[in-house]
Amino acid sequence: MSLNDKKVMATMDGNEAAAYVAYAFTEIAAIYPITPSSPMAGKTDAWSAHGKKNMFGQPVTLIEMQSEAGAVAAVHGALETGALSTTFTSSQGLMLMIPVMHRISGERLPGVLHVASRTVGTHALSIFGDHSDVMNCRQTGFALLSTGSVQEIMDLAPIAHLAAVKGRIPFLHFFDGFRTSHEINKIETIAHEDMAALLDREALDEFRAQALNPEHPRLRATVQNGDV
User: Fold this and answer.
1) CATH number for the 9-119+127-208 domain, one of 3.40.50.2300, 3.40.50.970, 3.90.1150.10, 3.30.465.10?
2) % helix / strand / coil in the chain, to the nearest 5?
3) In 9-109, beta strands by DSSP E
4) pLDDT above 80 (res 196)
5) pTM
């Protein structure tokens, strides 16, 4: 809903609620679909193709990579250029992102991952939902934010994006795959302009000021050994 208007209700599932929020804050989305997170990428792709605008007044630029590893690498590259970037994933896809997640958090970049949490494959792949995938990411330096219903996704997913920019800490927002990701509910929505009003513009400007730019080259991500 808008702060100045009456409640706006909508019927959607958890994936759509997360994608709706992420779209508002995202300038570049890099994707590689994986069950049960695929609808988040699909909705973002469809909205972008139809010219839907984010809070900055532009359609999200979306690119599908060759794997989840490529998707998170593209997110990393976008963040290095000062663009707010997001991806969506689950299970083995999230596992492929872990190496780059360490770089994103180490460089204090405000990336956000939305995860429909699903069992990590061990002796065999599984589509059942648990949190073994996100629990494997606790050491990456990403802040973890969990939601338990479609309404909570709508209410709390913006916090992941807002806090990432404000605190210069990347966020992993997750919810139960299949259980919450595909649960259809009637919820109260939050207007994109109200999310925009909460964004710390000064922190965003500071993030953009650190962007890599060929007109102002700088050295970054050097090798640092313990004897240096």
Assistant:
1) 3.40.50.970
2) 40, 20, 40
3) 9-13, 28-31, 61-64, 85-89
4) yes
5) 0.94
